[in-house]
Design brief:
The complex is a heterodimer of chains A (340) and B (396).
Chain A: H1 2-18, H2 26-33, E1 36-41, E2 49-50, E3 56-57, H3 59-72, E4 78-83, H4 88-93, E5 99-100, H5 108-111, E6 116-118, E7 123-125, E8 127-132, E9 146-151, H6 155-166, E10 171-176, H7 179-188, E11 193-197, H8 198-205, E12 214-216, E13 224-226, E14 229-231, H9 235-253, H10 261-267, H11 271-276, H12 283-287, H13 293-300, H14 304-311
Parallel strand pairs in A: 1-4, 1-5, 9-10, 9-11
Antiparallel strand pairs in A: 2-3, 6-14, 7-13, 8-11, 8-12
Chain B: H1 2-9, H2 20-52, H3 83-116, H4 121-135, H5 139-153, E1 168-170, E2 173-176, E3 178-181, H6 187-213, H7 219-237, E4 242-245, E5 248-250, E6 253-255, E7 258-260, H8 262-289, H9 292-300, H10 305-335, H11 347-359, H12 362-391
Antiparallel strand pairs in B: 1-2, 2-7, 3-4, 5-6
Classes of the chains: A alpha/beta (340), B mainly alpha (396).
């Protein structure tokens, strides 16, 4: 009886003393730490991978840098956490990283059940298939009974099953934890097809033993809006990440690049540009950032188009066309709300 | 106050905290209270954080549809089945590779262990080389090596041929005919059970007879005959109540028959070879632990060499062998979770991997996975401890 009472008192006391452990506003934590911890892909050329100099580069990596530029005024204040598809959500949930920019598809269950908020879309993608040319397959609908290599922990794995079910085809999935292993097994001939987002197919075909032997099938079987995400319920931080993305798109709309941003800032008479670059108005204050937050993003990282061309555009090994990821005014779907 | 008045009434004036017994109890209470408080705090803290971040919790997800396919399953499984069934598929796949692995590793390990003691120089050295090479290379490396070695050396599925129209080994796995059961088949396993019962009775009877009269009985040969002949005779009497479905090349892959996927073969191969190298050393140590005098004494009694091994050396060696052998079985079972590297859908891959990721419920899935591994391990331990007690030295 005595033991029991003391135990309960002890337990209650410990809880009262420690109190509820709050996640803490991410923004304050990041500012206090002085460095942004950003979760990126552990190796997807063009999106998040170390380049030949050992520096992180890619579209998602650029976005992490842009957030650091907005928060600290210094794009280099980022610590990149390379994460596999399987690790990424637990890392963000547990607070190991402040945000994810890791070609992650925005879905309802991730937005709600997993406890995240997506801030927007930084690449509109779709899932495709790659096969050996010698198979003579011209369409994904001919893949009945095929063995397909795929990475686990992705929407890809579920889309694949859905697609085969919808078209009443038999599927033999071979599921790997890492994309490299899935690609290697496909290359060895374990699978008839390899599937992932179309952008990833282009990137991974370029590292196969003999890229010319493989073709990418025309079907795109899913919508994959890839976007940065943060933990649910921390709206202040979410706003900052969202407007970093918007600022990069708006900058492209107005033709502001890392090269001409100084000139634009000094000379532009456009009120929206002046508001965004902190020349007039109190937009930065509302975000609790420095007035030159957007200037720093554009100056140090560049606008969306610059980042796209540098990492995955026509002049890179990935040779991806802008397609859907063009500005709305030029036939794409990129559309950022105004700075007002 | 109550304590003070009680103490005042006592004849002794020593305060209670000098009483060794009371102090002992008090310390235990403090430690226990601290532990409970710590656990309560962790649980409270976790639920708070989960709620605050809007992360789903609870075990309801086990009843919702999984939506993904699994490449290799012992029971029927479709993408429309639940996460609960995914768990079951994972457990069965883990048990499948573990049980076959334990059997394979034991057989190979015992053989290599005995070969290391061979008087033939070459045989003994070869066994030594095997043991030293395999137990000194990390298992994960071996699994990945065998997987890609197997994939690279096997023929492409469309260029492979069917052996006797029934078997094919290619990059997609080992294809073999599948039996299609017909009505009446259930009598075959029944006859097997009867045969096992019969064999057990004969074994007991023969043992008693030898103890009483000294007359030996060829138990092993008779029992083997019963175990094989009875089910075969039953099957023949019923007119062979099954047909074989042969695999056929259709489209991309073989259709029909059963297939052992290369991931399974590579994992089993690596687990058996790796664990056998440890078991070989355990067996060798066990045999060497039996003093040579025992063998000499048995030989002096006129026993033949194989009887000396079976009746004198092995029973004593087993007492040394079994406890470390249990650890190796546990290791093998837990090591099977490395399957995740080569896409074999074991418990860790499909449940703590895919399911965790699709539901985001890390705490629940990991807790269930740990519970399952613990249960399997405790099961193996319990069985091996029972066996160990059975063979332990009985003092009369």
């Amino acid at each position: 009886m005595m033991n029991w009472k003391i135990a309960v008192t002890g337990a209650v006391l410990a809880v009262v003393v420690a109190g509820p452990a709050y996640a803490g506003a991410t923004f304050d934590t990041v500012k206090q730490r002085g460095i942004l911890q950003c979760g990126v892909n552990n190796g997807l050329p063009g999106f998040g991978a170390p380049n030949d100099k050992g520096e992180w580069s890619g579209l998602d990596v650029d976005f992490c840098r842009a957030v650091a530029a907005a928060v600290f005024g210094d794009a280099t204040k980022v610590k990149f956490a390379p994460l596999t598809a399987k690790e990424r959500f637990t890392a963000l949930q547990s607070g190991e990283v402040d945000m994810l920019a890791r070609n992650t598809t925005w879905t309802l269950s991730r937005d709600t059940g997993l406890g995240f908020d997506f801030v927007g879309v930084n690449y509109y993608d779709g899932q495709g298939f790659m096969v050996r040319e010698s198979l003579g397959v011209k369409s994904a609908l001919e893949l009945n009974g095929a063995a397909v290599c795929v990475q686990t922990g992705t929407t890809t794995e579920l889309n694949l099953t859905d697609y085969f079910r919808t078209n009443s085809m038999e599927l033999k999935p071979v599921v790997f934890e890492k994309a490299e292993e899935a690609v290697a097994a496909y290359d060895e001939g374990r699978c008839d097809a390899y599937t992932t987002d179309a952008s990833g197919l282009a990137a991974e075909r370029s590292v196969l033993k003999n890229p010319a032997e493989h073709v990418i099938l025309p079907e795109i079987i899913s919508k994959e809006p890839l976007g940065p995400l943060v933990r649910h319920g921390d709206n202040e931080w979410e706003d900052i990440v969202r407007w970093t993305l918007n600022a990069m798109v708006i900058a492209e709309e107005f033709g502001i690049t890392s090269e001409n941003v100084d000139q634009v800032k000094a000379e532009s008479a456009n009120p929206e540009v002046r508001r965004m670059l902190g020349v007039e108005g109190d937009m930065a204050q509302q975000l609790k950032l420095n007035p030159d937050w957007a200037y720093n993003i554009i100056k140090q990282v560049g606008n969306y188009g610059e980042s796209f061309e540098r990492n995955i555009g026509e002049k890179t090994p990935l040779q991806l066309a802008r397609g859907l990821n063009q500005l709305w005014s030029k036939g794409g779907v990129l559309y950022a709300p105004p700075v007002r | 106050m109550a304590i003070q008045t009680e103490a005042a009434r006592r004849p002794s004036i020593t305060p209670f905290w000098y009483d060794q017994r009371i102090r002992g109890v008090l310390f235990q209470v403090f430690v226990l209270g601290g532990l409970i408080a710590f656990i309560a705090f962790i649980i409270y803290n976790t639920t708070q954080n989960l709620q605050q971040r809007g992360i789903a919790s609870g075990f309801g997800f086990l009843w919702s549809t999984s939506g993904f396919d699994i490449s290799f399953s012992l029971i029927s499984y479709k993408a429309t089945d639940t996460y609960g069934r995914v768990l079951l598929v994972g457990i069965l796949n883990t048990l499948f590779v573990s049980v076959l692995g334990v059997i394979g590793a034991t057989v190979l390990g015992v053989i290599v262990g005995i070969l290391r003691l061979s008087r033939n120089w070459l045989v003994a050295r070869l066994a030594t080389v095997y043991v030293e090479m395999l137990r000194n290379v990390p298992l994960l490396l071996q699994i990945v090596f065998w997987y890609f070695a197997v994939l690279a050396s096997l023929p492409d599925v469309r260029q492979s041929s069917l052996l006797w129209g029934a078997f094919s080994l290619n990059q997609r796995g080992f294809y073999l005919p599948a039996p299609i059961l017909e009505p009446g088949f259930s009598w075959v396993p029944v006859s097997l059970l009867v045969a096992i019962g019969l064999a057990f009775l004969i074994h007991r009877w023969a043992k008693r007879r030898q103890a009483e009269t000294g007359l030996p009985f060829p138990t092993l040969r008779v029992n083997l005959a019963i175990l094989i002949l009875l089910p075969v005779a039953t099957a023949l009497l019923l007119g062979v109540p099954w047909t074989l479905e042969h695999p056929e090349l259709a489209g991309f892959n073989y259709r029909g028959g059963t297939v052992l996927v290369p991931e399974f073969l590579a994992l089993l191969f690596a687990l058996v070879l790796y664990t056998a190298s440890f078991i070989a050393e355990i067996v060798r140590a066990g045999i060497l632990s039996v003093s040579h005098g025992q063998t000499e004494a048995a030989l002096a009694l006129g026993l033949r060499h194989n009887l000396v091994t079976r009746l004198v050396v092995m029973p004593q060696a087993l007492r040394v062998i079994v406890p470390p052998l249990t650890s190796q079985y546990l290791n093998l079972t837990k090591n099977s979770s490395l399957a995740v590297a080569i896409a074999y859908p074991d418990l860790f891959a499909v449940f703590a991997g895919t399911t965790l990721n699709q539901t985001g419920q890390a705490i629940e899935t990991i807790a269930i996975t740990m519970l399952v591994y613990t249960t399997i391990s405790l099961g193996i331990s319990a069985f091996m401890n029972w066996y160990n007690r059975k063979i332990a030295l009985v003092e009369r």
